[in-house]
Design brief:
This protein is mostly helical. It contains 12 helices and no strands.
Length: 262
């Protein structure tokens, strides 16, 4: 199918979720075919990891486990969602080479398909968040609902950023390992296993200039009973607008070349 413009390509992708949502669910079923627990194997392994590391780091940081474990669990599960999506996006078009060369589907559909898969897995892991918070010092309240628009904003930024990575990594194959290494470094620079209060005040700029910290706070803060700061919202909205602009510009320049780069 021929798309008149880049704008129409994005609109067509968002207006036809059957082109990516159903396929994402099919991918999940295929991945765990003949498995009794299916995606819950990921939930079980995540639960073991969070329990072991939560106990270790709460001891090292000398913090009560009931306070530290929910903080670490929410941050780590959100990070797994973000990092997995980013890493997979570096081969987002390469994985579908056979389809792209035969059918002209909107390019955003391929990344939306990956994003949908990771959201489905995140929802499986959210069971752990619910259980841990329910048995912690934190209480569920109306502020918890703020996490819903917070996650939607986080997912939107993740999608457009993934789309940028997909285009650049298709054109420049050496970028994939660079992006993956940068994501690994970002994990230790983001308040996931450590808290802001454990960081000397003169180093708080690390958090203020860390986009991941603001995105994660949009979801983690409401789940732990407090509202995200205005700075968290402003930075996240700015990231959304910036990634939309960059991804639109990249697709506008490369939409007729991506198939030749594969």
């Amino acid at each position: 199918m021929f798309y008149k413009s880049t704008f129409h390509e994005f609109i067509h992708a968002f207006k036809h979720p059957h082109q990516w949502l159903l396929l994402a669910w099919f991918d999940i079923k295929q991945r765990y075919r003949r498995s009794v627990l299916g995606p819950f194997w990921i939930t079980i392994s995540t639960a073991i990891l969070i329990s072991a590391l939560g106990l270790l780091w709460s001891t090292l940081f000398k913090m009560p486990l009931a306070e530290y474990l929910p903080y670490f669990a929410v941050g780590n599960i959100l990070w797994v969602f973000i990092s997995t999506q980013f890493n997979e996006s570096t081969i987002g078009f390469i994985n579908f080479t056979h389809i792209i060369k035969q059918h002209r589907l909107p390019y955003p559909s391929y990344i939306l398909r990956q994003l949908s898969q990771n959201i489905i897995i995140f929802l499986h892991n959210f069971i752990l968040i619910f259980i841990i918070i329910s048995f912690s010092i934190y209480d569920w309240s109306w502020k918890t609902l703020i996490a819903i628009p917070g996650f939607i904003l986080l997912a939107a930024v993740t999608f457009f950023c993934s789309f940028i990575f997909a285009i650049l990594s298709t054109r420049y194959r050496d970028l994939a390992p660079i992006i993956q290494n940068m994501i690994m470094v970002a994990y230790f620079m983001t308040p996931i296993m450590w808290q802001e209060k454990t960081l000397p005040e003169k180093y708080h700029w690390i958090i203020h200039f860390n986009p991941f910290a603001h995105l994660i706070s949009l979801v983690r803060q409401p789940l732990l009973g407090s509202a995200p700061s205005l700075l968290n919202w402003l930075v996240s909205i700015f990231l959304l607008l910036a990634t939309i602009l960059i991804s639109y510009s990249l697709l506008n320049k490369s939409r007729n070349r991506i198939a030749y780069w594969l």
